Amino acid sequence: MTLDDLDTPAVIIDLDVMDRNIRDMAEHCRKLGIPLRVHTKSHKIPEIAHRQIAAGAIGVACQKLGDAEVMVAAGIQDILIPYNIVGPRKTERLTRLAKRARMTVAVDSEATAQGISDQAAGDGCRVNVLIELDTGGRRCGVQAPEAALDLAKKIAAMPGLNFEGVMTYPSRPEARPFLAKTVELIRGAGIPVRTISGGGTGHESMAKELDLTETRSGSYVWEGLSRIGNSDHLHENRCPLRVLTTVVSVPTPDRAILDGGMKTFASYPPKPYGRIVEHPDARISGMSVEHGHLDTSACSHRFAVGERLSVIPLHQEMCLNLHNECYGYRKGDVEVIWPVAGMGRVK
């Protein structure tokens, strides 16, 4: 099978570029001396997670239980869920996983920790726990080192839980005083802090400078080692994921319509929504539900109905989550078809 045999729209992955991105990040972290935990929400595909672990990652991070269930079923044995697991429906699912793999979760309240403790103690298993610190991200997390110490003491006394340490996102210089004071207080109370976890693709060097014990990175699989600033940076030599599309209409000389819209790409600002690999001067200027609106006014190429174009979407992670399968290829030949096993698993 070649790319020419695929119906469109289809998510395609240049395996040579992806494999290089995985190797580059693993080597980057090895040189820094910071353990890498890979975030699977960027791809939701167990086969890619196994590739990352084989390259040197210590384990994975899954943002939701649904993703973790997919990874455990595929044999991944060390999983961090950096997310508050709340309610008996979720804690029961968590303890089922904890009987099959090493599970670590983040909490930022006694109520969340107590719910997990009650379930784990009742089910006869143990769950590792990190306290999330709000070091400026203004999302989840305790607000002061003293609050983290108080919560750590309570977690350490709860049955079914192993207090593991602390985590934050993203790793940045401003986090240093909060992290240092928190670790000092908890260790001073006689409670071991084994893990200090930071995160964010592009923040690996800062994680090392902050003396963290691991860094969580994910989007590098699709972006290489450089963060996306705008669509001009969506170059095919570092972005392996593309959407293969077909031109279905050329209503005017300066406009063409693709067979993929919001339900194919995700309507993610800012415009343009992606880069046309074959004709970078053409711009996806807008999207309706099932149509991509291509502005061809700056492009000398004359587009035709039936022409196939590959598009690097602005947000590869959100795009992939809309598709139930993708096609890995090398030099135009399809090598593998991967189900997007975690697609839509947001519970």
Description of the molecule:
- The structure is a single chain.
- The chain folds into 2 domains: 3-11 and 227-339, D-serine dehydratase-like domain (Lyase, Ornithine Decarboxylase, Chain A, domain 1, Beta Barrel); 15-223, TIM Barrel (Alpha-Beta Barrel).
- The strands form 2 sheets. Strands 1, 10, 11, 12, 13, 14, 15, 16 and 17 form a 9-stranded mixed β-sheet that branches. An 8-stranded parallel β-barrel has the order 2-3-4-5-6-7-8-9, surrounded by 6 helices.
- Helices cover 31% and strands 26% of the residues.
- Helix 3 runs parallel beside helix 4 (88-98), helix 4 (88-98) crosses helix 5 (110-123) and helix 6 runs parallel beside helix 7 (176-188).
- The chain has helices at 15-32, 46-55, 65-73, 88-98, 110-123, 145-156, 176-188, 204-209, 220-223, 262-265, 316-320; strands spanning 10-14, 36-39, 59-61, 78-81, 102-107, 127-132, 161-167, 195-199, 214-217, 241-252, 255-258, 274-276, 283-287, 292-295, 308-313, 325-330, 333-339.
- The longest helix has 18 residues, at 15-32.
- It starts with 9 loop residues before the first strand and ends in an 8-residue tail after the last strand.
- It is α/β, with parallel strands linked by helices and 347 residues long.
